[in-house]
Specification:
Oligomer: single chain
Largest sheet: 5 strands, antiparallel
Bound molecules: adenosine monophosphate, glycine
CATH architecture of the largest domain: 2-Layer Sandwich
CATH superfamily of the largest domain: ATP-grasp fold, B domain
Strand content: 25-35%
Helix content: 25-40%
Number of domains: 4
Length: 406
């Protein structure tokens, strides 16, 4: 059987392991206490037929090329292509060159220049760290005072250290957001079934931006026409421009899009599967995910993937204090019961650990993502919440409105 190593330790890697595990032998490194076949061994020391790198940090750090240089087959871009996520300024420059529709912007390291530029913009104001900030480096605010203060805190390094010492200030776009994840072999791409995630901490999109508090797939507003438009006018021109720069990008190209009154515009590229989007998109694969990733890593995707018409909704359970200062160490109950509840696809584990009695305890911000399935989004939603409501710890937080009214 094909042997696959998955790098990472979150809910996304748990979902990857489940779905790749349908037709391959999987090991996850480092994984976590609830992901089956988690091992502490470095991926560089495990022999496998395919290596799938989950999170952005090792991609930006160059792990994919390190493995490729050992002759391994790897799904994930090198550090050159990973700059699409590792540097927002680099990404904006590349997509402008590619002619991809995106928000107007300026890139700054100087406080006075940044603040003068900001004064020329209108609300909502959007400030982004150039570097990686675990999905938290973006401020969207209607308050010019908050925006001016943020610019000062970002550029001085107070807010995000080195990641914020260069910033991108953007035109604020308005409209619904969708995530379209494409898989590319470096030359061409296929799209996965779209997802929508819920980035803000609280109901009705209030509170700070997080890594994502829930998601659903499919997305009724993301029609096949829209997906084709994104492949033709966003993804393919981006791949072509990467090629012109000598970059062979094999992996996920995740387009975060806003559907504005002027049409879709690119908010961001991620160089990996979304989390928690992976927990709703991947279990919907009908064709083999393993085969698709092997083909992409080998430089020749041969067939489009297909997806079940069943819907999936995932609800993230997070700790008190997330996204700034997660409170950890609290015993978790109900995971088994939730996992075996009718209509639950799985309970995907991220920020958790085991205590001395081998009981799960919280160990991060986003702890679990409970994915429900159903014939419709509303049935999947109901199932996800029935499952999530069985899970408890002191300070557990979840949004109540994931996929409501869709
Ligand atoms: P990003 O990490 O760039 O996707 O930004 C995180 C979130 O901030 C996005 O999902 C949007 O909700 C919001 N955002 C980013 N850029 C903009 C923009 N130009 N206008 C409005 N909202 C934005
Ligand atoms: N859920 C958004 C992300 O993975 O970046």
């Amino acid at each position: 059987m094909t042997k696959v190593v998955i790098v990472g330790s979150g809910g996304r890697e748990h979902a990857l392991a489940d779905v790749i595990g349908r037709d391959a032998d999987v090991q996850v490194t480092p994984g976590n206490a609830l992901i089956p076949n988690s091992v502490a061994t470095s991926p560089l020391e495990i022999e496998a037929d395919l290596y799938v790198i989950g999170p952005e940090a090792p991609l930006v750090a160059g792990m994919a090329d390190q493995l490729r240089n050992q002759g391994k087959l790897v799904f994930g871009p090198g550090p050159d292509g990973a700059q699409l996520e590792g540097s927002k300024a680099w990404m904006k420059d590349l997509v402008m060159e590619a002619g991809v529709p995106t928000a107007q912007h300026g890139t700054f390291t100087d406080l006075i220049q940044a603040q003068s530029f900001l004064e020329t913009m209108t609300a909502p104001y959007v400030i982004k760290t150039d570097g990686l900030a675990a999905g938290k480096g973006v401020l969207v605010t209607d308050s010019i005072d908050e925006a001016l203060t943020a610019v000062e805190e970002y550029l001085s390094g107070i807010a995000f250290g080195g990641a914020g010492e260069k910033i991108v200030i953007e035109e604020g776009l308005i409209g619904p957001e969708i995530s379209i994840l494409a898989i590319t072999d470096g030359k061409k791409a296929v799209a996965l079934s779209p997802a929508q995630d819920f980035k803000r901490l609280h109901n009705n999109d209030h509170g700070p931006n997080t890594g994502g508090m829930g998601a659903y797939s499919p997305v009724p507003i993301a029609t096949p026409t829209l997906v084709n438009d994104v492949l033709d006018n966003f993804i393919q021109p981006t791949i072509n421009t990467l090629n012109e720069r000598g970059i062979d990008y094999r992996g996920v190209l995740y387009a975060g899009l806003m559907l504005t009154s002027e049409g879709p515009k690119l908010l961001e590229y991620n160089v990996r599967f979304g989390d928690p989007e992976a927990q709703v998109v991947l279990p919907r694969f009908e064709t083999s995910l393993t085969k698709l990733l092997i083909e992409a890593a080998s430089g020749d995707i041969k067939a489009e993937p297909t997806f079940t018409s069943d819907a999936m909704v995932t609800v993230v359970c997070s700790t008190e204090g997330y996204p700034t200062t997660p409170k950890v160490g609290d015993p978790i109950t109900g995971i088994e019961e939730a996992t075996h509840t009718h209509g639950i696809e799985n309970v995907y584990a991220a920020g958790l650990d085991l205590n001395q009695k081998e009981q799960p305890i919280t160990a991060g911000g986003r702890v679990l993502a409970v994915t429900g399935r159903g014939n419709t989004i509303q049935i999947a939603r109901k199932n996800a919440y029935i499952g999530a409501d069985k899970i408890h710890w002191d300070g557990l937080h979840k949004r109540q409105d994931i996929a409501e009214g869709i």
